[in-house]
Amino acid sequence: MRQIILDTETTGLEWKKGNRVVEIGCVELIERRPSGRNFHKYLKPDCAFEPGAQEVTGLTLEFLADKPDFTEVVEEFLDYIRGAEVIIHNAAFDVGFLDNELVLAGPQHGRMTDHCTVIDTLAMAREQFPGQRNSLDALCKRLGVDNTHRHLHGGLLDAQILADVYIALTSGQEEIGFGLPQDGQARAEPVRHAFDASNVGLRARVMPTPAELEAHAARLEKLRSKGGGTCLWDVVEAPAVAQTLQPA
DSSP H helical segments within 91-237, as ranges? Predict the structure, then answer.
């Protein structure tokens, strides 16, 4: 299964007002593991930033002046996403902008959904956490994904963070290691395991912390007190998982 985690940065909030895409960041997952084959482009717009947008991204027209425009990278971009499941947070925003860029580049390019399937993690989060804040930052906090290195919005950085959030949303695992230090050393909580993108054949192993083991034991005792001294975990689950729950 090939998945692309995608994020864009733009000159403003609405493409209908003439705003344009200035950055595209994509992370490729193969069988839910980062392949290292990413797509990242800064783009030169033909318009100014709206008030506030430049501060959010840290990008300037001066920096973007020598970058390609979308028409110069459109074929490379479509080749990259073609046939993939593209995962976006608040997909309507990014797809609206990218569809507009495709229209401006020429009708022969079609729309995003002509080339890929789009999955919206915002819709997934709202289903899992109804009535709660489901911004990317809020999900990072709720799911234990480290985003302390995110000081400005950036297409590739946000795509890497969203990849961790998506894995957590869909499997309960924590982040897959995009925010790890370059030397690969372990960090403090909330991250409890690291995934090395260079070893894409390995699966990260999530280990409980001592505090989680203690909370688990306390919960079982409460269940036993209500169940006459035993609980279903003791009968069915404990033999199969006892070794796994031992701290390393």
Answer: 91-105, 121-128, 136-143, 155-171, 210-226, 232
